[in-house]
Amino acid sequence: MITIQGKGASIGVAVGPLYFYQRAKSEITRFKVADTDAEWARFEKAQATAIEQLGALAEKARTEAGDDAAALFEVHQMMAEDLDFVEAIEEQIKSGGLNAEAVVSDVAVQFAEMFAAMDDAYMQARAADVKDVSGRILAILTGAVQGGIASDVPVILASDDLAPSETVQLDKSKILGFITSGGSGSSHTAILARTMGIPAIIGAGDQLKEEYAGREIIVDGGTGVAVIEADADTRARLMQKAEEQRRHRELLDQLKGKENVTKDNHAVRIYCNIGSPEDVTTVLNNDGGGIGLFRSEFLYLNCDDYPTEDYQFEAYKKVLSDMGGREVVIRTLDIGADKQIGYFNLPHEENPALGNRALRICLNRPEVFRTQLRALYRASIYGKLLIMFPMVTSVWEVREAKKMCEQVKKELSAEGIPYSEEVELGIMIETPAAAIMSDRLAKEVDFFSCGTNDLTQYTLACDRQNNDLGRFYDPHHPAVLRLLKMAADNAHKNGIWIGICGELGADLELTETFLSIGIDELSVSPRSVLPLRQKVRDITVSAVREDLVRKLQSDETGI
Ligand code: PEP
Ligand code: MG
Fold this sequence. Notes:
Number of domains: 3
Helix content: 40-55%
Bound molecules: phosphoenolpyruvate, magnesium ion
Oligomer: single chain
Radius of gyration: 25 Å
Low-confidence stretches: none
């Protein structure tokens, strides 16, 4: 029996064969070729296919998002045909006698370095284009396969860590649990595991070895312990725990249909966080009152190219209709930082969490933002839609985003396309700037929702992805709680509501504090709804409010 101690990231006990995630092949093999003419012809064929693909992408982008969007693919097309680039490849294949993959990869590095060293910012940005075009040609040459799970039976999935784009493309019916050597509790892999209600352990480090592949493993996502080939006693103990958890869920099921009201009649709305339209089933099964956060970027992560307006419209329409008139907060695209999407061609950044992400990208790429807003407004007639902008720091950003909404509404009216006039607009409070400016921001929007994952990261200067920061990444830190209170006071002074949609919303140790400072809505993973309802129904807020608020504002720590 081998015991691994990691960090519990999503509760529950699961048992199954250990399977290591197969990443798409990216190594380039390097070898000498005998027939250099045939190798050159192989390159030319791959180049022609790439040019054809890029042409089709440019046309698609033009019809859906206009000439600016198409231009990106046209630049890539020109690059794939660029004489200097192609001649360098021809020369190295024909005189060096190397295989096409190795040559394309080498020439791409040379050209990217050359562009990156130029003074002009525009030319520097071409380095990313060279990499992108070469990556496309290389994928055609190598017939690269998508990563995934090539197993007929459901497995416990192991990996170093999974990027959100990898997680989102997994076949969920094949996953019983997760175990990763890296990762952190507020990384998006952990968040997704919780949303899907799948047990997960992160941060197992080098205790997780590939040689264990195929052996039976039990993961306990509550304690962070995983056991490979457990002895009879350990197996029985963990299976009993799984059974107890199942029975506990049955008890919690009795709370379905009951109100989220404290003993002294203080009501709070309990909504759910989702990543895809399919998650609505779990929301309804767990009696979630609405959707407090639909991370729309997962739609983008699931596509190989910009999702079209119609594709997005269908997804938003499905969520709104399935929720049957209950409130649905859809957050506009929040990519960047750990959520990278290849086809956005975002330039490399030294500090991506502080870089071009979320609303910043939308304001800089209005054609992308406009497509999403059109899809959202078109879908708005199918339910109760609220649109939320992420990563706000300034009032002007919100005004610009609202202006885009007005433009989109005008366009739809002119085209005779119906939309609802009742759509509420809100922002995430997830930067210290937004919390500090919440008095001004509250005058611009209909609601606030606090993203405590990022608020903690930015307030405490602690990377949320870095598991080694451990106790330094402390969402209970008084600085974070004070900012939440500040935002709540400013929201209420201005007559708007405030919620929490970060992972902290489900932290039962803070439920009394949240209700005491006036949080109106908590949006949590679907499986956290009933435990949270149980907690709410068990507390009396008025008795502790003054004390909690005093502690929060005094020098007393521990809150
Ligand atoms: C947050 O930052 O708390 C949040 C809800 O957004 P995300 O986790 O997707 O960054
Ligand atoms: Mg966030």
